[in-house]
Structure formats: structure tokens, C-alpha cells
């Protein structure tokens, strides 16, 4: 039996309680005991970590993850990476997430059909370090929809970003194919996206097509995630029971009412970091604030801020993560979402941290063993140098992520801490064949 004790730490347990001083005993992969104050834990054969008052919290969950997005400035540039290099990229990025305290993640779509599945299996087998991972499919789209980047002069779809379908039977075939590959859930693009030249308020799928996907998912016991910016697409999610709602920027009052009435069934991962950084941090790649406004992103950010604030007040579950892996929001900087939740949605820092921890256990379908520091729960813990409730930006600094433990096994220790800007530097150092403009922005 392996034992570890975290002594003299400030415990944020993810239950909603205020932090308190105490110690934690971990046996094998579980939290065995938690004591308050300076009471000592009697475990003479344990490895003892003196936290010196540092912040001990549950591992975080990234609810809208694209490991195969390779920090490039376009969907096509992501897709063009050959599959052999692409899986190696995913392996490296998975470790980066773990090093930054993200011990669980939901795959929001893979750039190629089996990337998520292969990565998940390798992590589960202990071949490579990475978060607990639920693997998504490639994006299921329709002709002319988001993810259809086929070219009219080429007679095949091998280079398409998504699985292009038209009609319920093609949806059925696509769903069954991904289920055969072993995905944990399916992903469908129910709305448009400005960067792809499609209005975000576009809803291209028919009710019959969405119903078919929902039926096939239910038949095989799979959940469905949906790219759903438009109000109608959010309503389709609720009508057809698609559990994971991504974006939801333009949800109107009827859509909000529907979500609230079914808030125990749905999670919203808005990807607000994508909106913020596309509006204000993408000039290096030709998307100046003026261009972003013309594209529609400034308007969407303003509407999404109001919409998500209403969701939060209604008690609809909102989780961090989304579309990190583009050049102007590289992997490793995901915790920026927590501050955006405070600034744009009106959460308190504690609520933002609970969204990443307690709600993370729920979206991972393990609410009774993940996302909280409680006796009997899985020992996914992160030791932070500083108090994120006073400054959430601490969680974006790898130099402040002092220790990461997943399932009782230490994945990163203080001596492995990276330089202060590593969340950005790694994004360029690990990336093969990168545009020079992309590389400059990482430094």
C-alpha cells in the first residue's frame, strides 16, 4: 500500500465550503482521511509533503477539449498534419494539460476519426501521462456546414475536417462508424461559426437528422456533444436530449427556459476564451479587433456574456474549457477561462473554481468520486503555490502548479516545475512545422 500525506495545507475541497487549514492522507488511489487544523495524521510509513500553507485543491476538468488542435491559426492547418505526427502531438499535449492541473478532460471532437480513442486508450494503459479522458468523435456535419471543407474538384472527403452527412441514414452510418471505433460520445455541429464563413446563428440540421443521431446514441449508451451557438440549435439539444451543449451564445429566453427545466440533464461549456481572445488577441494572424467585429465575434461576445450570466443565475451548469489549441489561445493557457467566467459571466472566483472541480466530476459521470477532496474520493489533487481565490491567473502559470497527483500517483513535482512562461513556450517548442507568425506569438 502506498501512502502520502499533505500536511499544513490550505484545503479547497470542492464541496462549496470555504478553504480551511488541514492535512490529507492518501492511500493508494483514494483519499483516506482529511483532518482540520494542525492535528497530525498518524501514518509513519507515508511520504509526507509539507505544504507550508499552500493551496490544495481537486484536479480540474476541461469540459471542451481538442487535444488534436495543434496551435495553428486555421481549421485547415490543423487537419493537414499527417496522422503519424498528429497522434504524437496529442500525446505531448495531454501531458501539458496534466502538468497544468487538468486531471480530467472531455474530448469535444478529434481532427481525425480515431485520434481521441487512441490517445484515451494509451493514457488508460499507462503508456503516456495524461488526464482522465472521454474520447469524442470527429465532428458530424452536413453539406456546407461547419467542418465541411471538401473541395469541389476532388472526388473524395479524406481531407474534410468533419464527417459530412446529408439525411438521417447518413447520420446513422456516421454515428455507428464512430461508435465502432470506440468513442465515449458523439459530436455534431448544429450551428455555424464565423471563422468558417458561416453565420453563428445558422442551424443547418433538420429535426429528423438530429433525432436519428440521438436515437443511435441512446441505442449504444453514448452521450452527444453539440456545437450549438444558435438559439435553435440549443433548443434542438434539449428537445433531443443532447447532453453536452457547447457555446450556446445566442440562446433566447425560450431556450434558457428549456435548459433550466432540464438543468439536471445538460452541461454548457461555452468556450468563452475563444470569443475573448479572437476579439482581442488574434491580430498577429490577421484578425484584428476591427476584423473580429466585422466577422461577428464582438457582437457574439457581448450577447454571450449576457446569455451566460442569465444561465448562471438560473443554476444551469457552466464549465470551463473550449477551443484551446488555436494559435491565439494555445494549449496550456486554459485556466484563463476561470477569470473570464468572473469578468464576463459574473461568477465569483469560488464559483469559477467549483465549475472546474465539482462540476467536472459531474460531467465526467463520476460525481461521487471525482472533483472533490472527500474521504473515499479518487486522489486527483493539485498543490498550488498561492491562492487562486485571490488571483485566478495563478492557475495559468506552470511555475505555480507545484504538484499534480492523479489517482494517487504523482505526475508532476515541485522539482519538475517549468519556467514561468512555459504554457506559451511549450506550445511552440513542441509544435512541428509551424508558421513563423504563429511561433512569434508564442514568445
Q: What is the CATH H-level superfamily of the largest domain?
A: Metal-dependent hydrolases
User: What would you say the CATH architecture of the largest domain is?
Assistant: Alpha-Beta Barrel
How many β-strand runs?
A: 17
- Portion of residues in beta strands equals 15-25%
Q: What is the CATH domain class of the largest domain?
A: Alpha Beta
End-to-end distance: 44 Å
Count of separate structural domains:
2
CATH-defined topology of the largest domain: TIM Barrel
Radius of gyration: 21 Å
- How would you classify the helix and strand content by structural class? alpha/beta
GO molecular function, one term: hydrolase activity, acting on carbon-nitrogen (but not peptide) bonds
Organism: Cupriavidus metallidurans (strain ATCC 43123 / DSM 2839 / NBRC 102507 / CH34) (Ralstonia metallidurans)
Protein name: Aryldialkylphosphatase-related protein
Domain Amidohydrolase-related: 55-409
